[in-house]
Amino acid sequence: MCGILGYVGLDNAVDVVHKGLEKLEYRGYDSVGIAYQQNMKVVIQKEKGRVIDLAPLLKNKNSNIAIGHTRWATHGEPNKLNAHPHCSNTNRFIIVHNGIIENYQKLKVEYLSGYDFISQTDTEIIVNLVELFSLTMSINEAIRKTMSLLEGSYACLILDKKNLNCIYFFKDKSPLLLGIGKNGITLSSDITGLVGYAEQYVALEDKTFGIAYANRFYFYDIIGLKLEPNIKSVQVSSSEIDKKTFTHYMLKEIHEQPLMIRSILQKYFIGDEVNIPLKLINKMRKCDKINIVACGTSMYAGMMAKYYFEKLCSIPTEVFCASELIYSTPLISKRPFFIFYSQSGETADVLAVMKKMKKQKFPMLCITNNTESSMGRLTDFCLDIYAGKEIAVASTKAYTAMIVVSSILARAVSGVRTNLKSNLKGVSLAMEKVLNNKEICLGIAKDIVNEKDVFYIGRGMDYWVCLEGALKLKEISYIHTEAFPSGELKHGPIALIHKDTPVIAIITQEGTNRITRSNLTETISRGAKGFVISSKGLSLPEDTFIIPNVAHYLSPLVSAIVIQLIAFYTALLKNNDIDKPKNLAKCVTVE
Ligand code: G6P
User: Fold this and answer.
1) What is the edge-to-edge ordering of all strands in the sheet holding 152-160?
2) For residue 527, what pLDDT is reported?
3) Is the CB of 370 under 6 A from ligand 1?
4) pTM to 2 decimals?
5) Three-class secondary structure of residue 161 per DSSP
6) For 58-67, how does the pLDDT look when each residue is reduced to its tens digit (9 = 90+)?
């Protein structure tokens, strides 16, 4: 994880890097640091805490060049000492690093025995290796030699005190983009860090290194051959990353979902015809099994997708948790097709599986919010979910966007004409109605905020939304929350029910309506506080939140808004940092 940012050019580099780090904070936010040039010396400022905490130290500071880092601790606890940037022993080189060096202990013993290490990070190894090799080689060669020894993942920026006109950069596995602006060059872990300072950018390939000056840059591969950059234009605008009138990004992103659905329809339909590449459809039609690979919220969206591919296309589909699949490859069918779901397109566990399957030449599709990401660039086919930038760490709109795009894809692969487009328009309207009644979710939040445990129950699709509901609630409210298929309660979890334990049942499916209600009643008989989120046609007057009716296979898109709002309001009542919950990061680039 972690975010890195560098700038060299005519604008004030201190400002550019500080503002850029704020945009990258979703990648980690337990400590922060920046290095910049002042009177041909390098000044380093670090803090344990948020990017904003550096502001007083950077007031009125001006520089042509700076590098910065916002951290999600891997090696070494989050404190000022372990915060980046780190220096080499003679202080000649200064580095920021995103990633993990797996063989750092070995390298330390083999190459750096006389060196002092101040922090507990693996990063100091990199910068000292560069220093060591630079004693006998050019800096370019020293970096290439260092890269050839590193195992793991890295995106690094380095300043050389002897030449403060340029930034050295190199990467493998961790993302790094180089932005080209009128006034200078920006280097960033993602595209939002470039917004405002670059009109064009280059996404670096793995094992690339280069040098950026204010008005030019050079790329090389690991053996020193010059590379031709593939320059693209920056498509993200500053308005996309503006909180607008909302107090929190999460609330804004929850509210964006009705409109988002309409814009997805515009992208994937021409009239009533689905607009998905025929080549992809044909490839999927030929497969004998679809394997969905993802993590977290994206995996839960994948569960809905499984339902669509099986019901609409009759293709057996299995959902895999990426971190499990890496180390225990299941039996693979004769003609498999892989679909990778990832909001960021950078999640290390998912990327690792993708690379593994790519080696075996299995056909693959990535469904992502970031088509220019590492996954987007590696895959054969890529479908954009068009959710717009999602900034809150807890994912909301990307989840529903993935479900919507999956339903459209399944419709295309099935070749069967359905009312999907008008049904999805109905979902958009239903979501708006839920948002207009959001105070009901605040009421539920008030009832659960002081409890130790919360349980979500449901069956089938409703259970899959429960999984996402439990994840959302625990992520941002820190209340222990679990989801169970309602029928499983009596096989163990019901032992956890005591007086006033909140149990939230989601009931939107005709076939399971009655039985889930009975399961809820069983918990209420044992003291639980019951809440029911039900679809209109299946509701009882006393239900807690009666959501509008939509096509039954799309109802999770509507109940999703309810579970998102319950999580949001509960965290709000607890005064938690909703957009940046503790211990989490939005983009998990370590396995
Ligand atoms: C992290 C985030 C989750 C997200 C998961 C997968 O854990 O906090 O919100 O669902 O990563 O991320 P991806 O970008 O692959 O969808």
Assistant:
1) 86-87, 93-101, 152-160, 163-172, 208-212, 217-221
2) 92
3) no
4) 0.83
5) coil
6) 999 999 999 9
The DSSP 8-state label assigned to residue 205 in this structure reads P
The secondary structure of residue 406, as a DSSP letter, is: H
The count of C-alpha atoms lying within 13 angstroms of the C-alpha of 499, restricted to the half-sphere facing its C-beta, is: 0
User: What does the block give as tokens for 140?
Assistant: 């370019």
What is the CA(346)–ligand 1 centre distance, in A?
Answer: 9
Q: Looking at the DSSP assignment, which residues form a beta bridge with residue 218?
A: 211
Residue 586 is among the residues annotated as catalytic for this protein: yes
Of 308, 421, 434, nearest to 367 by C-alpha is 308
Distances (CA, A) of 394 to 73, 79, 391, 467, 469: 19, 25, 8, 14, 11
Q: How many CB atoms neighbour CB 243 within 10 A?
A: 13
CB hemisphere CA count around 19 (13 angstroms) = 15
| pLDDT attached to residue 78 | 80
**CA-to-CA distance for 313 and 566, rounded, in angstroms?**
34
With the C-alpha atoms ordered 25, 28, 30, 33, is the resulting torsion angle positive or negative?
negative
Helix (H) or strand (E) holding 307: helix 296-313
Tell me which of 2, 366, 441, 466 is the catalytic residue. 2
pLDDT attached to residue 524: 94
**458 Cβ inside 6 Å of ligand 1:** no
| Cα dihedral across residues 522, 524, 530, 533: positive or negative | positive
* Alpha-carbon span 305 to 409, nearest angstrom: 9
The whole-angstrom separation of Cα 590 and Cα 75 is 12
Helix (H, G, I), strand (E, B) or coil at 59: coil
Q: DSSP assignment, residue 226? A: B
List the helix and strand counts (H, then E) for the chain: 18, 26
- The C-alpha atoms of residue 102 and residue 154 are separated, in whole angstroms, by 10
Segments in the chain below pLDDT 70: 1, 590-591
Q: Residue 417: its pLDDT value, please?
A: 87
Q: How many Cα atoms within 13 Å fall on the side-chain side of residue 250?
A: 28
The yes-or-no answer on residue 441 being catalytic is no
Residue 331, C-beta contacts closer than 8 angstroms, at least 6 positions apart = none
**Ligand 1 contact, 137 CB (< 6 A):** no
- Looking at 19, 108, 306, 586, which residue is catalytic? 586
Judged by DSSP in three states, 371 sits in coil
Ligand 1 centre to CA of 253 (Å) is 15
